[in-house]
Amino acid sequence: AAGYRLGIKETERPKDDHRAYSVHVERAESIQEIRLQLPILQKEQEIMEAVHNNTVVVLKGDTGSGKTTQLPQFLFEAGYGDKDGLTPGMIGITQPRRVAAVSMAKRVAQELGNHGDKVAHQIRFDTTVSSKTAIKFMTDGVLLRELSQDLLLKKYSAIIIDEAHERSVNTDLLIGILSKIVPARMKKSEQNPDPKPLKLIIMSATLNIKDFLHEKLFSTFMRPALVEAEGRQHRVTTHFALRSRPDYLEETVEKVKRAHKKLPRGGILVFLTGQNEIKYVLSRLRKDLVRPTAKLEEAAPRMHISAVDTPLELEDLDIGDIHTTSQEDLDLADEIDIVTDEEELDKEFEVSDDDDEEGMVDVPALRQDKIALKRDPYDTVHLLPLYSQLPTKDQLRIFEPPPERSRLIVLSTNVAETSLTIPNIRYVIDCGRSKERKFNSETNTQSFEVDYISKASAQQRAGRAGRTAPGHCWRLYSSAIYEQYFPEHTEPEILRTPAENVVLSVKGFRFPKPVTDFPFPTAPTRTTLANAERLLKHLGAIAGPNGALTDLGKKMTLYPVNPRLSKIIIHAIEKAPKALNQIILLASALSVDDIFVNQTQISPEVDDDGHDDEQDKLKQRYGRAHALFSRQDKASDALKLLTAAQLYLKDSEKDHFCQQFFLRSKAMQEISQLYSQLCSMIRSTHPHLSHVLGTAQLTETTKPDVVKSINTSAASGYIDQIAIRYDLHPEQSIVASSPRRAIDVPYFPLIPINQRTGNSEKRPAFIHPSSVLAKLSTKVLPQYIVYRHLQERTNSQVLTSSDTEIVKTRMLPLCTVDATAL
Ligand code: ADP
Ligand code: MG
Prior knowledge:
Elements: H1 29-36, H2 39-42, H3 44-53, E1 56-61, H4 67-77, E2 90-95, H5 98-111, E3 119-123, E4 126-127, E5 135-139, H6 140-149, E6 156-161, H7 169-186, E7 199-204, E8 225-229, E9 236-240, H8 248-262, E10 267-271, H9 275-289, H10 293-303, H11 327-336, H12 342-348, H13 353-357, H14 363-375, E11 380-386, H15 392-395, E12 406-412, H16 415-418, E13 425-430, E14 433-440, E15 445-452, H17 455-463, E16 471-475, H18 479-485, H19 500-508, H20 526-539, E17 542-543, E18 548-549, H21 551-556, H22 563-575, H23 580-590, H24 599-606, H25 612-630, H26 637-650, H27 654-661, H28 665-685, H29 704-717, E19 722-725, E20 746-749, E21 765-767, E22 784-791, E23 810-816
Parallel strand pairs: 1-7, 1-8, 2-5, 2-6, 3-5, 6-7, 9-16, 10-12, 10-13, 11-12, 13-16, 21-23
Antiparallel strand pairs: 3-4, 14-15, 17-18, 19-20, 19-22, 20-21, 22-23
Bound molecules: adenosine-5'-diphosphate and magnesium ion.
């Protein structure tokens, strides 16, 4: 190992320099060139010294500065990770998003040249980890699960918690627990006879980080060292809209079209809130921007005409027969509408005066680009969607260079905000909103709501335009809205979700203290914690005045699903072994958000030619698919789910099956994988039940006793979510005015006896229209309904903007139970 990455020869370095033990990495020259431009590389020595001298390091650096790709390599080169190295034990890096874990592992493997095979990823149901692995990228959830096997994380010499600023529940939980593990690793004990330090590096984009530094987390002797790495951010000019239009999707389509037509070279990144919106905008843009090949050939020569500045090296250009700039050419140029004037560009995009005052328009760079545009214009666009439900291989397409002569346009959710840096983006169009799961701990309802992002997020999004060159960001909202309604920072997820998972995990970590003493970066509210404890009590996971884990609770921590579902599984093992197979499959199906493609999602795809017939046929097919799954039992959404999953597992052409029946194939794959995982877990813990498990044993579930077992087990996990028909409830105070449709029949969510408090609000809930119960006659509606969620309101989506907002509380039913089962 003669060479050294910073150009210092091994022999020239002082003996006590910890870098003297570095591992030699041979990188491709092209890779090395790119690396050297990353701001983080200038900080390598400072970072590694901080890691060397401290147990905990917080690294704060701009998005795209190289934290995720470089930090693991710095550690590796310093001898971490390799079994034969100075500091054996893997380097673990956690990501809140699966797509980031996979793509970053791929990238680092590529960069690490001769050691590339030592990089692996592990996400749920997909891993490339082997005995060689030295650098392991994983989701934060995977590392949390590993803690239940090995609380001291002895396999690791360093843990990097990446994207800490995203404040996912899992990341917060990891930081809390790691603040305890790190000192425990240094103490000799029965479990830890050979203490070896565990380095902890918390990485965050340039955002609020004080929550990771407070005293409750890290005691004085572990005070984290803080290293800041500034990014080499180019200037980004931000343009606010003059008015905020509610139909921001239309606005987006228009903006993208104009931007593509007028703007110099550079990719366009569009931030939208979810899959639906992305698909819709994608289909609109495809229709308008992707021209059929024949037309394109016709149009192409006109695109190459240089309109104004003649002193271009014409011979370098492929401009067909035209070699002079005549008046005719100029006219043609007008037609294709090349932006020739700075002012016009700004007018076009409604730059407000404020922006000009800041003097942020980078004129020379743009002018140069305009020349480049004339040299190398685009013929077409390369449209790519990016959202978490997209298959991984399609997600990775954003890193591939777009086809020649096409402009990259990426339509993305939040994923592209800080996790992934898409190369060569120069323009950002930001709708200013994101979709978030919201949870109201008072009413125990959850909803997905499209809401304004924070100022910090808006700034991050804009920043994506300035990675490679000066860029522009168009915000589809006014500066007044931004000032008035955008919070400074996004609230940590832990404040927005129910905490039963968190509480069960914390109790599983065997801290003798109450949960409220757990060192959360931001603690869940007392109400949320109390609700979680109450639910865990109902499920039987905790008991006693201190809420200690019961035997059942301990068992529940072993299953890779939430407490409700593990309760269902354990209930089935103990009480309904005959229906166990089906119940495991049902639990697997309940672990994903929704398996059915939303009906609003199917229409934009066929919109292309505006054939209404096609639309109608599709809707009919959609209806038939749903009817097929709910055929055998009319009154249970659980059985519908189960039937769909069962037919999917039995089908040999799975992708085709999903397409035909409008199922989300990624969700179905996950169900299938979870089902197999659960089966094999139970086979090993309960060998006497092996014979009932497995796809081959799945049979149609029409027998009344099996159906009853399924319902009873399902209810055991939702014991606190049972509603009774209003007109049958003894405490009923209002009489429903003879409803005509099932969805208008009010139900009263029962509050479990020991949860009743004086102020509990008695609000009726109505059957969600997507339920199989919605089609029943009101006369045969069941007395009791076990429901999955209450929904406060469904946000009126822009796609169906004519719908009025539904302000009723809706419940998503699961099954029915008899009073005797309660
Ligand atoms: P940070 O973690 O600080 O946000 P990253 O390490 O993710 O920064 O990114 C550093 C650079 O590496 C970015 O310019 C990004 O575009 C590039 N990069 C990351 N992954 C890939 C990939 N798969 N292919 C090409 N470039 C990549
Ligand atoms: Mg990163």
